[in-house]
Amino acid sequence: MTDLSRYDDWLAWLREQGRTDPAIRVVFLGGSAVTGGYDDHSDIDVEVLATPGEAVAAYQRLVDAARRDFEVYGVWELPEATWPDGRQAFLELTPDAGDLSVPTRIIDLHVSDLADHHRIVDPRRHGEPLVLHDPDGLIELRPDDEEAMERARRDAVTQIAARRRTSAWLVNRAIARGDLAEAVTFHFQFAVNPLVRLLRIRHCPARHDFGLRYLRTDLPPGYAERVEALLPGPDLQARADAAFAWQDELLAEPVTH
């Protein structure tokens, strides 16, 4: 079990909000608290599902109540247009979020209208949620549509293979011109990120689209270090060449799941 004790007051508070606010139908935790990798500097990812049409109002009540009941040092609210059916904010419960000399307390609060795509959770991708409030048993664990994911993986491989030579040209040209900012940007975009996508498709297909996060938990031992050795450095051309060579190796081997 993950030790969430430094958030005990917040978890108790969330349960109480669920009991007392009739618009709040479900409250659960996701993120590293349930998938792994949680440590002294992890936030907690709080998902709140509200009666359809009431998510924004419920979100505002939660933020206002949090400001009242806790010492909230900062709130980063994502733009209203970020989510079509709700709102999201990061609440800082420590004075300086960047000060890692003390344990972090940050709440990633996401409030959405109750809908199937929010209440149905694929545990392969998102872990088994820690449910704090769900009196009607609305949370359901179910794998995402495998056919759709396989199509997305196949399309990704097709695109990576089709642009392979163009990708190398973009990276190599920027390096040759001495345009360092452009070279680093293109190196991530066309050398490193596609390589990681191919590695994920091979080794953790359910999380094929999770990018550069969770490499140590999602890839075989030692692979995260191999990827990190390809990140931008003084020998960027050699790192780009190695990244594209690894892409070629993976593209040459058909993947079956």
* Range of strand content: 15-25%
Query: Which quaternary structure do these chains form?
Result: single chain
Give the CATH superfamily of the largest domain: Beta Polymerase, domain 2
Task: Give the CATH level 1 class of the largest domain.
Answer: Alpha Beta
Let me know the largest β-sheet. 6 strands, mixed
Going across the biggest sheet, name each strand in turn.
3-4-5-2-1-7
| Number of structural units classed as domains | 2
What class, by secondary structure content? alpha/beta
Distance between the termini: 30 Å
Mean pLDDT: 96
Radius of gyration: 21 Å
What shape does the CA trace take?
globular
CATH topology of the largest domain: Beta Polymerase, domain 2
Which range best describes the helical content: under 10%, 10-25%, 25-40%, 40-55%, 55-70% or over 70%? Answer: 40-55%
What attributes characterize this protein structure?
globular; alpha/beta; Beta Polymerase, domain 2; two-stranded parallel ribbon; 8 strands; six-stranded mixed beta sheet; 257 residues; 11 helices
Structural description of this entry:
With 257 residues, the chain is of the alpha/beta class. It folds into 2 domains: 5-141, Beta Polymerase, domain 2 (2-Layer Sandwich); 146-251. Helix content is 47%, strand content 16%. It is built from 11 helices and 8 strands. It has a 6-stranded mixed β-sheet with strand order 3-4-5-2-1-7. It has a two-stranded parallel ribbon with strand order 6-8. Helix 6 (146-162) packs across helix 8. It is globular and about 60 Å long.
